[in-house]
Design a protein that fits this description.
There is one protein chain. By secondary structure, the chain is an alpha/beta fold. The chain folds into four domains: 96 residues; 252 residues, no CATH class; 153 residues, Reverse transcriptase/Diguanylate cyclase domain (Alpha-Beta Plaits, 2-Layer Sandwich); 241 residues, TIM Barrel (Alpha-Beta Barrel). The longest helix is centred in the middle third of the chain and has 24 residues. The two termini are 79 Å apart.
């Protein structure tokens, strides 16, 4: 962002340097000038205007020398401080020519000359008038024809000439005892009392390469309307002017009639509209008022920053634009933020001008907007190829990196690169249990650990919600991939602390590599590594697999299975089978375990081991699990009515890890119990030991909520998963279920028998009953009875039965 601001500032300054922004800066200056409040008329000045009415009354233009003489004499009688005549008298206007010349030579009236251009066009002063009473009335026009500068001194053929306004001001100040002097710092700079009049430089304010010849200052306009009291020629000649209006004042005489063409554009009025132009005498009055105000009223002359200050100012606003664009993502909010920033910029520039300062508005505004737009564009490009959460390259960027690696193989046939596809195990469960915020922070932590595992030059990307990819380039053989894979898996098995949660996760890794003689494409290599990763997950997670050709067909088959699975609920392809479990003390059926089966219309009966992992991974297990619970509870209610016994038949339903992470699980179970009128004690929920140990604290909290419904809880496959002995006393469960692997090979002297005996003893000590599954022989049944096991389940009693078969079994009421 800083680099972008520096570049954009450099571009804006470059455009400004060649004058590309001058017109806009001058327009902004005029805008600020127009917004300033008008000052009161200057009491030191009086303007005698020659209007259209005056010209008609005199019936001539120019006004005759006799009338002009009468005007000057009447004014002199009223004792002005100084009189300035802004009307050319180089050409006789009889009658009264000689009398007027004589008067001008003898009086202190300041007259005018016009320097013109080097090619000619100047106008001389009246003949014989002292040079100290002559000032030029040339004005400096900007490229747009507007007067913004006051030319105080000029040079003509080696002589230094004073402007008309400066002559008048100096003569007035001389009466106050104030004489011009040189600045102590620079003798070429004029000082009047304590006010130093610094001449404009070529780059002052918004100007670039200004024609700063002569001695110029920037005009500070007093008012857009009334600069000073104004009377007409006719009023003076007819004696209608109060002498106090003239006495001790600077009197300026000039034409305001539009027919005289002495009109100019100012910041208040456009040069393109003649009716908005200002008479030259009024502009001269503005100039005189500015000089007098600066010296006598301590009014500041307009100041500017140096080049360094303006660069820092523009850079600062560029940084503001960059920060806004980087921090604010919503377009509407960004627009509001920029509008506020631009308003603040204008406010500061306006405030500076009230203190006579001209600081850059347009370049700073352009820098802000351009930098903001550039950062937004950069962010959009960055987001297109990077992950917003981790800052890693995304799938699109990783594909480009793969394409470059593939391109190198065209020039280096032996060049080997390897793609590792990493899939986090159990991330969805973590995300749903602890919330997306914790999940996001976990992903950031995982990305940081993965970076630490890589060699210089290896590239890491996030290519899916819980999936990462690593590109290992210029490797010698697959052993490099194995080393990185081992290191990654070791690192990610270490616990993560996120928001005071200790989280454990593992990663499954798929490996694919380029092979000489094959034309690879990025998406194919990534797909192959992805396929290998899913193969690793299906084989038990926390593993790695190298892609083999047969995996691709397996992936296609799995994708088709997922598609069919989504349709299975809608098409009523699922059904439940019920395997009885028997009370070993009485030998009678105590209840049934509901087992889900899928009858595919084309593939026939699909094994639960084949479709349950897919349902878990896709989240389809949630609606499937809800359907299973509804069906099982309804069925056991019917059987309790048809086959009453004491205690009543119960039903066991398995819960998956994904179901346990659902916030609404408890509410749904309570709703089902209410709707079916099933006693909660007749429902037993079975949870595998490995699922319980995934997140012990959260699981214990959930189990306690479930026990609050007064239903039964069972830990399934106990002894086959994580070691849960240290937590078992904290689990609010009713039953331990001995896995079939310990029952099927159980003999009096076998290790499995000792394990079964230990589990039974442990469960009894903790107040739990025991159910053994997988009973297939009478010897196994007898041995379990001898060990004090309460319940048994297995083919010795009956396989999983359809509803009709289960009802037939209940009618026969067998005893074992």
């Amino acid at each position: 962002m800083l680099l972008t601001s520096l570049i954009m500032t450099g571009l804006v300054l470059g455009v400004r340097q060649v004058g590309g922004l001058q017109a806009l800066e001058l327009a902004a200056f005029d805008w600020i000038v127009r917004l300033q409040p008008n000052a009161n008329p200057d009491p030191r000045l009086l303007i005698v205007a020659i209007s259209e009415t005056d010209i008609q009354a005199q019936q001539s233009w120019p006004i005759s020398d006799r009338s002009m003489l009468r005007l000057l004499q009447k004014l002199e009688a009223m004792e002005p401080a100084v009189v300035g005549l802004d009307i050319y008298r180089d050409v006789p206007q009889p009658p009264g020519t000689q009398e007027l010349l004589s008067y001008l030579r003898q009086s202190d009236v300041v007259t005018i000359t016009n320097i013109g251009t080097p090619e000619g066009g100047g106008v001389p002063a009246p003949r014989g008038v002292s040079e100290t009473l002559v000032g030029f009335n040339d004005v400096v026009l900007d490229p747009d024809g507007v007067i913004r500068r006051n030319l105080l001194f000029a040079s003509d053929q080696g002589k230094v000439l004073h402007s008309f306004s400066l002559r008048l001001a100096l003569r007035y100040l001389a009466l106050q005892g104030i004489e011009p002097a040189s600045s102590a710092r620079d003798r070429s700079v004029m000082r009047l009392r304590n006010r130093v009049f610094e001449p404009l430089s070529p780059t002052a304010g918004g100007y670039q390469d200004l024609d700063a010849r002569g001695y110029q200052i920037l005009m500070h306009y007093r008012s857009s309307t009334s600069i000073a009291r104004q009377v007409t020629l006719t009023q003076v000649l007819q004696g209608e002017v109060d002498p106090d209006w003239v006495k001790g004042k600077v009197v300026l005489i000039g034409a305001t009639a539009r027919s005289t063409k002495d009109l100019f554009a100012t910041p208040y009025r456009s040069a393109s509209r003649p009716e908005h132009l200002t008479a030259g005498i009024l502009i001269q009055a503005q100039m005189v008022s500015q000089i007098l105000g600066a010296v006598l009223d301590d009014q500041r002359l307009i100041w500017f920053w140096g080049d360094g200050g303006e660069v820092l100012w523009i850079l600062g606003w560029s940084l503001i634009g960059g920060v806004l664009a980087w921090r604010v993502y919503h377009p509407a909010l960004l627009g509001v933020g920029e509008a506020i920033a631009l308003s603040g910029l204008f406010g500061l520039c306006f405030l500076a001008y009230t203190q006579a300062g001209w600081i850059p508005l347009v370049p700073a505004a352009i820098a802000l907007v351009v930098t903001s737009a550039t950062v937004v564009t950069q962010r959009a490009v960055y987001s297109a190829f990077h992950d917003d959460l981790t800052g890693l390259p995304n799938r699109a960027m990783f594909s480009k990196l793969l394409q470059r690696a593939i391109a190198r193989t065209h020039h280096q046939p032996d060049y080997l690169f390897i793609v590792l596809f990493l899939g986090l195990d159990r991330f969805k469960t973590i995300n749903e249990s602890l919330g997306h915020t914790v999940g996001d922070r976990l992903l950031v932590s995982i990305a940081q650990r993965l970076r630490a595992c890589l060699r210089p030059g290896d590239r890491l990307a996030r290519v899916g919600g819980d999936e990462f990819a690593i590109l290992l380039e210029a490797v010698d053989d697959l052993s490099t991939a194995m080393q990185v894979t081992h290191q990654v898996q070791q690192e990610l098995t270490q616990s993560f602390i996120v928001d005071e949660h200790e989280i454990f996760t593992t990663v499954s890794v798929g490996i694919a590599f380029n092979q000489s003689g094959y034309e690879h494409r990025p998406e194919e290599l990534l797909r192959d590594a992805h396929t290998a990763m899913y193969r690793a997950k299906s084989l038990g997670k926390a593993r790695h697999e190298i892609f083999a050709k047969g995996m691709r067909q397996q992936a296609v088959t799995r994708l088709q299975l997922e598609t069919d699975l989504r349709r299975a609920l809608e098409r009523n392809e699922f059904h439940l089978r019920y395997q009885p479990f028997v009370c070993l003390k009485s030998g009678k059926i105590a209840g049934f375990e509901a087992l889900l089966r899928w009858q595919h219309p084309h593939r026939g009966l699909v094994s639960p081991g084949e479709f349950i992992p897919v349902a878990e991974e896709t989240g389809l297990i949630i609606p499937i699990g809800q359907w299973t619970l509804d069906q099982a509870c309804n069925q056991i209610c019917q059987w309790q009515s048809l086959f009453p016994q004491s205690p009543p038949l119960s039903v066991s339903v398995n819960l998956s890890g994904r179901q346990l992470s659902q916030p609404e699980l408890v509410d749904h179970i309570q709703t089902v119990l209410t709707q079916t009128c099933l006693e909660p004690s007749s429902l037993k929920l079975e949870i595998t030991e490995s699922v319980v140990m995934d997140d012990v604290e959260s699981t214990i909290t959930l189990l306690q909520r479930l026990r609050g419904l007064h239903l039964q809880l069972s830990i399934d496959d106990f002894g086959t998963g994580y070691s849960s002995l240290s937590y078992l006393h904290r689990f609010p469960t009713n039953t331990l279920k001995i896995d079939r692997s310990f029952v099927s090979h159980m003999t009096d002297a076998s290790e499995n028998a000792e394990i079964a005996r230990t589990i039974i003893l442990l469960g009894h000590n903790l107040g739990m009953d025991i159910i053994a599954e997988g009973i297939e022989t009478a010897d196994q049944l007898a041995h379990l009875r001898a060990l004090g096991c309460e319940y048994g389940q297995g083919y010795f009693f009956a396989p999983a039965l359809v509803v009709e078969e289960a009802e037939d079994l209940l009618r026969r009421m067998p005893t074992w």
